[in-house]
Amino acid sequence: MVNEIRGDLHARGRRFAITVARFNEIVTRKLLDGALEAMRSHDVGDEDVDVVWVPGAFELPLAARRLAQSGIYDGVICLGAVIRGETAHFEHVAGQAAAGIREAAEASGVPVSFGVLTTETLEQALDRAGGKHGNKGWDAAVAAIEMASLLEQLPKEG
């Protein structure tokens, strides 16, 4: 019989950090609200969540890496919104944020979830931050909870 290992969504007693980009705060505040709601729904107490604000999505990876490597948190959630403009800025910021967030998780061994919206318009971003497409902040928080549980069950790095 094949042994399956899955993370669960029982998060009581776990600690999380949420890094949030101030840029496009009209969107990121809604993502944060969704992430906090998800934490509370999965028995994470408010005292077990720290929220760290950074200037923009480009700065998320550095803060996430520092938080993940601190040894304090079971997971880090990164929230931001990069909305396409008239320049190539969108591609550079979105790509670097994604790569840096992945690298923070790999370097620390702590789950660092990606809740950075990359949309064409503000309307699309709002639709994904509590609008008609759900709340990706909630989704990123649930992913961090599940990954924290899963990693606890996997063999330690040797």
Describe the overall structure.
The chain has a 4-stranded parallel beta sheet, with helices on both faces. α1 (25-41) packs across α5 (136-153) and α2 (60-69) runs parallel beside α3. Helix content is 45%, strand content 22%. The two termini are 26 Å apart. The chain has 158 residues and is an alpha/beta fold. The protein has helices at residues 25-41, 60-69, 89-108, 122-127, 136-153, and strands spanning 16-21, 49-54, 75-83, 112-119, 129-131, 134-135. The longest helix is centred in the middle third of the chain and has 20 residues, at 89-108. β3, α3 and β4 (112-119) form a beta-alpha-beta unit. It has 5 helices and 6 strands; from the N terminus they run βαβαβαβαββα. The chain has a single domain (25-150), classed as Rossmann fold.
Give the key terms.
Rossmann fold, 158 residues, 22% strand, alpha/beta, 45% helix, globular, 5 helices, two-stranded antiparallel ribbon, four-stranded parallel beta sheet
Morphology: globular
Give the number of domains.
1
Order of helices and strands: EHEHEHEHEEH
Order of strands in the sheet with the most strands? Answer: 2-1-3-4
CATH architecture: 3-Layer(aba) Sandwich
CATH topology: Rossmann fold
Helical percentage: 40-55%
